[in-house]
Amino acid sequence: MTDQVLPYNSKWLLRVYLAIVFFSTIVCIITGSYLAFFAPLVLLYLVTFSLSWKLAYWMLLFSIPFSVLFTLQGDTLSISLPDEPMMWAFLLLLPVLFANKPGIIYKWWLKDPLVIVVLLQLIWLFVAVLHSRVFFLSAKFLVAKVWYLACFFVFPIWVFRNKKDFKKGFWLMLASMLATVVVVLFRQLHAHFSFITINRDIGALYNNHVEYSSVLSMFLPLVFIAYLICPPRKKWIKRALLAITLVFLIAVFFSYARAAVLAVIFSAIVGLAIRFRLVNVIMPCIYGIITLLMVYLVQDSNYIDLRPDYEHTYMHTNFKGHILATFKGQDMSSMERIYRWIAAIRMSRDEPVLGYGPHSFYYYYKPYTVNTFKTYVSENYEHSTTHNYFLYMLVEQGWPAMILYALLVMLVFAHAQRTYHMAGDRFYKYVTLGLAMAFAASFVNNFFSELIETHKVGALFYLSIALLIILRKKCKDVNMVANIR
Fold it and tell me: Which of 150, 213, 270, 480 is the most exposed place for a label (fewest CB within 10 A)?
């Protein structure tokens, strides 16, 4: 396989593609017709894919922030356009590449602890699907997970080969993501940054304000790191990156998502902890605190003391009231989370090892709820799930899946800390730090949701892990060359 990512005679395709995406998006926003956005791209992408799949991969990364979720056949099927069909293409390409060159999967990659854990997660997911009570829905979940891993966990080892590739991937995603942020902020400005209209202002660009804020909080550390490593001689680029960092901070605040604000703070803490070699202490402490809290709440049914006042627990009309209600135990979304967390824990007693099957929580959790925690939204017309990724794994795939996820989080931070202090190259050192901070933000967001299965957060989640694996290999190679010299 050639290491050349962009063949010279195909570079014009990327420029044409980016221009078409930009103008199609403008037409889509003005007319409200999504056909205007997607129709011109299909033929161009197929031509591009046949000429250079690596160029097509850059197009995929650029398209992720723009992609819109469409629901088909009621609520049974959905598709994200244009990025999901692009992922299918890469999933189909993977066995072709492997058949052509079996050694394409590098041994150093297969031996990495992070790869081993992710593969174990996939194997256990397959087992859970076979045991699932909702086999068809679980099978769809498995297929989607496979193409996510193919695109954002496997293909990066062939795409991100040097510093130029890391920079290219960053700038492509930043350009499209910044465009969505500007559109949302413009809409919010016209709505006077109203708390109650945030989901309407976001529109179809993101599923809701939770996904929007999660994506921003994950990408924000990367923008800040780009500002830090940008050479002083490129002062206009450096100033632009600082301005974009501030724009992202403002956008996170006005997304009115508490988890995203905590995610930004936690990512900064993890960044400092890595620099001072303390990150390996953070996750054991967090897991320990959660375990002690769970023991206390379960003992003598102390969790009952957290039950809300049904009449006074509702969605507030401004962010300040939302925050104050959270501390008073009168916020509807917080109490609804506890309502479902209790149900998930009680469910897990009946299927502790294999779980009920992926995508099954909604269909089985109601009998396990405690009515004293019921809120105005407990009917759950949105079919949402546990609002905690650990419990999401526990109830749908059993204890092994939850333990593997907990282990993965610890290993990612430990892996990043080792790479950061091993790296002699400043660029690789700081990119490692930025990716670890992005992963830290995803950890917090997914503690209060289960967004890894969504196309935008999921892409960033697996990309961050994949790139950390690649960076560790590159740092080892650089150090080896330096020692020989």
Answer: 480
